[in-house]
Amino acid sequence: MNKETTINHDINKAPKTGDWKYMSPEVDAKKCIGCGTCVTFCPEACIKLRANSHPGKNKNAKGIASIDYDLCKGCGVCAVECPTRAIIMKKI
């Protein structure tokens, strides 16, 4: 495979696969700094950064991680990779 290859993911065509998980990530908006590490490492491309609607909670945040639970499989990669431990996995 060429090192410069990019895999394009069309979220609108992706199957809804998140309903079989037993663990679910939860984002603590007070800890999230909007670095995007979780977005980069998510194997399902189900995390996006949304605007920080409550800047008083974390003025330094560039954004807040937002998870599409219809697509999230609950693998926990985001929680492991988060540098501020803003994402925790909870049993559902």
3D architecture notes:
The chain has 92 residues and is of the alpha+beta class. The chain has a domain at 31-91: Alpha-Beta Plaits. It has helices spanning 37-41, 77-81; strands at residues 23-27, 47-50, 64-67, 87-91. It has a two-stranded antiparallel ribbon. It has a two-stranded antiparallel sheet with strand order 2-3. The longest helix is centred in the middle third of the chain and has 5 residues, at 37-41.
What layout of secondary structure does this protein have?
Elements: E1 23-27, H1 37-41, E2 47-50, E3 64-67, H2 77-81, E4 87-91
Antiparallel strand pairs: 1-4, 2-3
Keywords for this structure?
92 residues; globular; single chain; two-stranded antiparallel sheet; 4 strands; Alpha-Beta Plaits; alpha+beta
Q: Quick summary of this structure?
A:
This protein has 92 residues and is α+β, with helices and mostly antiparallel strands. Helix content is 11%, strand content 20%.
Which structural class matches the secondary elements?
alpha+beta
Write out the strand line-up for the largest beta sheet, numbering strands in chain order.
Answer: 1-4
Number of strands: 4
Architecture per CATH nomenclature, i.e. the level-2 architecture of one domain? 2-Layer Sandwich
What is the CA-atom radius of gyration, in angstroms?
14 Å
Distance between the termini: 39 Å
- The fraction of residues assigned to DSSP E strands is 15-25%
Shape: globular
pLDDT under 50 segments (min length 5)? none
Looking at the structure, the CATH topology of one domain is Alpha-Beta Plaits
**What is the top-level CATH class of one domain?**
Alpha Beta
Largest sheet: 2 strands, antiparallel
Q: What portion of residues is helical?
A: 10-25%
Mean pLDDT: 85
Helix and strand element order = EHEEHE
